[in-house]
Amino acid sequence: MTRQAFARGQLVVRSRRGVHPSEEALLNALPTGKAGNALVVNSAEGLAALALRALNPRLSVHCHFDDAWDLDAARQTARRHPDLAPDLALAPDPPEGPWDIVAMPSTMAGLADLLRERLAFALRCLRPGGLLFTSTDNRRDRFLRDQVLRLFGSATTLPGPTRRSGVAYIARRPPNASHPDLDLRRTFSVKDGDRVLSFLSRPGVFCHGRLDAGTRALLTSDEFSAVLGSLAPPSSGRAPRILDLGCGAGVLGLVAALRCPDAHVTLVDSHARAIECAEANAASLGVRERCTTLLSANAARDLSPGYAVVLSNPPYYGNWRIAEMFLDAAAKLLVSGGRVLLVTKAPEWFAVAMRGRFVNVAARPARGYAIVSATQRA
Questions:
Q1: Where are the domains of the chain?
Q2: For residues 277 and 203, what is the distance between their CA atoms, to the nearest angstrom?
């Protein structure tokens, strides 16, 4: 277990891997003795917000998250530091401010469009003379530096305190800066039979601006058609329920809603922008009244059982932790005899994990992926 101290020893972090290199560089660059209002965007566990509060007792700090996973982690950390706890919020976009300080870490493997959008937001929402603190885990970074210089004109570079940490940049908003309003929303098309469907996406949403190849493989599979085609008509006034787990922009669930006009579809994702896009797409496709959305990092906790079908294109990151949660949710939420259908490039792992939860587990290659299906136990 690694122990690291920040903010003049007022913030102690214990973790197995240590603080992320980008976060470490950002924490090292934060100011002291400031007053006013500060915005922190997507800081791991809210550490930058806690450090700002420790270093600047007169500073009001708002900590914004795009993803419910990160918000849950920040809440756990804040409970250990009740005297420093900032405001924590989950939304598609941060509040407009105006702000005296904006702090936002980034990663070398991050989303370039989202970073560009957020830097433009910082310039627009900072007061004249307000300060931007941003960082990356790449000590040889050029991309983030160039973006900051293009918008702010100048910046101070501060390498992190250790060889493993990243680099931070501090920039001041010029008094007469222009106010860029960079909106990188994109639409993409999905062909489903004779229909060509249009979907909205935003930076930060899975596969922004295009249809993911794995999702395409599942949509065009025989299994997808067979599972949806097997849904019985409503009985006793209750429509069959379909769950799109980790829905992103909502492609799987909304195509299912169009193919099954008697079904009710629940779209779940932990990312606030994904849910925003899924709701907009459901409305534009004319199925909003038959769709429910849920912004959550724990569907098993936040939903009730009763689903006939669970669809998913599970993420690969998180050392299978998220995939395990998806399978646990499907096992809890499916009715007896219900079907789970997912697409993956790791069918061996899923086959083993699913045999402990379901029956009739099968995997078939499709378009460079594997379609894995299973049935809920009786």
A1: 2-172, 186-375
A2: 11
